[in-house]
Amino acid sequence: VAIRRPARGIGFPFLQFPLRSTIGCLRDSPPSSTRSTPTSPLSRPAPPPLGKMAAAALANGDVRAGGGGAVPRPTNPMVTPLLTDLYQFSMAYAYWKAGKHLDRAVFDLYFRKSPFAGEFTVFGGLEECIRFIANFKFKEEEINFLRTALPTCEDGFFEYLSSIDCSDVEVYAIPEGSAVFPKVPLMIIEGPVAVVQLLETPFLSLVNYASLVTTNAARHRLVAGKPKNLLEFGLRRAQGPDGGISASRYSYMGGFDATSNVAAGRLFGIPIRGTHSHAFVSSFLGLDEIIDKALSSSDGSNKCEDFVSLVENWLVKIQGASSLRGSFGETNQSELAAFTSYALAFPNSFLALVDTYDVMRSGVPNFCAVALALNDMGYKAVGIRLDSGDLAYLSIETRKFFCAIEKEFGVVGFGKTNITASNDLNEETIDALNKQGHEVDSFGIGTYLVTCYAQAALGCVFKLVEINKQPRIKLSEDVTKVYMSVPISIQSEKI
């Protein structure tokens, strides 16, 4: 990893991924270039690990190896050289026809305006771009398809496409996960113009959404605050399977703590979390449906043969508690059966959805009865989830109930039992909850996070800034679209 500074000012660290000498091997020293001079090796961070998916790919041999290492293929198998716009091949053919295909070109990938009316963006998608170029090679069947799509192109062009890879391409990039700003190049791509042109659409596809959702996640983290747990629950509302997988991955990069997406957990090592649905609660009719009522203590020293009766006894105690008298009456017995059944299945991770019927008159008291029964057996319940209603009010009232239970029955720490809130949360609703003094510990966020509801796209662009060492610029009637590339001897500055 070569950390580079501009000729003047304070330098933003750039990672260099040279593929000329080896594919997938990061050099410790920069190549001979006029871009900049290397800095002292005092701060050369290692690149982030590729994760479990990369390790599995290496073990399975699903990589393209170079002289010094190997880089796994892109996570999504649809990311191939054909994942591009037709006009990229049209231009590549025109370059080839004119004998310009080997001209040395430099392109900058950047965006013009930060998303969500904000002041920053968090860069995501770099790893997938590196995986893509490290494995860039046309297959025979892909070449055959291109022959049918471009029937007027000469055979020599397709022979050329069959021969190319990205071994003569260099990528200079700001580290993934960095805060970045408009009109600052996130990536500088240098190589033969025809080859680099074929990278434009895949790179934009891999960076645009990744950076957008990472930024969205970071903004939610800033609003929620560092102590709160943020859980990504968006798979069912995402734009297809790839959108769901990518959202889980980049939400985690942006500051979320866990995901409900099991596939993303396997691929990227993200912690997975989940409870149960309203359907689970309403599927029970009564406690008599529970057949196996036995529960061993957490240390295995004893066994309760009738955990259901223990729960019922605790519910009677709660109903008779002086500090809680009059706050609720008879609770829903089918809900109690669902909670008890779930606790028997997961005594170490019992977290109940309490708003199927009535939060304060049924859900919370039923949860407490089961949680106190688990406490007798040496287990600690995780908490509750609120998925509807006035979340600030309900969380405050629930916290009061938990504190009353702790005081009434002397269960140390019960007042701090976790409260999770969900239900179409976004930055604005979390900010509103903050202003109301809520008692929520964890937020489950889905639709507004993964769909980036507040802004559909980031709008990264890929612009030619140099050809054969000659600077180039695109002029426009819209002055906001005029991009002045910095000289290649100067890099991004961060103050």
TrEMBL record:
One of its GO terms (molecular function) is nicotinate phosphoribosyltransferase activity. Residues 82-208 form the Nicotinate phosphoribosyltransferase N-terminal domain. Residues 380-482 form the Nicotinate/nicotinamide phosphoribosyltransferase domain. Keywords: Ligase, Magnesium, Manganese, Metal-binding, Phosphoprotein, Pyridine nucleotide biosynthesis, Transferase. It is an enzyme of class 6 (ligase). GO terms for cellular component: cytosol. Its cofactor is Mn(2+); Mg(2+). Pfam families: NAPRTase (PF04095), NAPRTase_N (PF17767). Coiled coil: none annotated. It catalyses: 5-phospho-alpha-D-ribose 1-diphosphate + nicotinate + ATP + H2O = nicotinate beta-D-ribonucleotide + ADP + phosphate + diphosphate. It comes from the Eukaryota. Residues 26-43 have a biased composition (Low complexity). Its EC number is 6.3.4.21. Residues 25-47 are annotated as: Disordered. PANTHER family: NICOTINATE PHOSPHORIBOSYLTRANSFERASE (PTHR11098:SF1). Catalyzes the first step in the biosynthesis of NAD from nicotinic acid, the ATP-dependent synthesis of beta-nicotinate D-ribonucleotide from nicotinate and 5-phospho-D-ribose 1-phosphate. Helps prevent cellular oxidative stress via its role in NAD biosynthesis. Belongs to the NAPRTase family. This is Nicotinate phosphoribosyltransferase. It comes from Aegilops tauschii subsp. strangulata.
